[in-house]
Here is the input.
Amino acid sequence: MSTISASTIQRDIICFQVQALNNVDVGNSTSFGDPVSFIDTSKVHFNEGGFTIASNGVTFPETGYYVIGASLFYQAQSATTTNDRVCPEMRFRNITQDSNMGTNSIAAMGYIRNLNSSGYSGPRNSSSMHTLIVSLTAGDKIGVQIRRGADTGRDCEIEDESVMWGFKLQ
Here is the structure.
């Protein structure tokens, strides 16, 4: 039996992670529009492999299968009644191919409801995370679309604790 030393295994890692801008308005639309410009291009955590990072999406450098994801942290303003609530919904959009990713897969677990009837009237926080395995062509630009699934009259913003990432499966 032979032994393989881990130092002899080489692998090119193709991956990125980028942070969000602070206080990006989620908007009031109940339908998905253009991908949201929430990416802070000055806060790239890492970019191995030549991804092009723009405020409204990331262009992928090579054809292949990728894991893509986003973790969005939201904050809703102080509410005036206990019925004020928000539920941002997000999905990935291939801007280049003008198509939705993951057969219209949507993340909608960022529900926020104010509980000022219990004595708390400050802003509330929540988050959503979405991850997909997708087949992409070199040059495809992927963005995040957001719509409102609940009260559109309540301000809700993406905070800079949010990130978008991706890596190629090899």
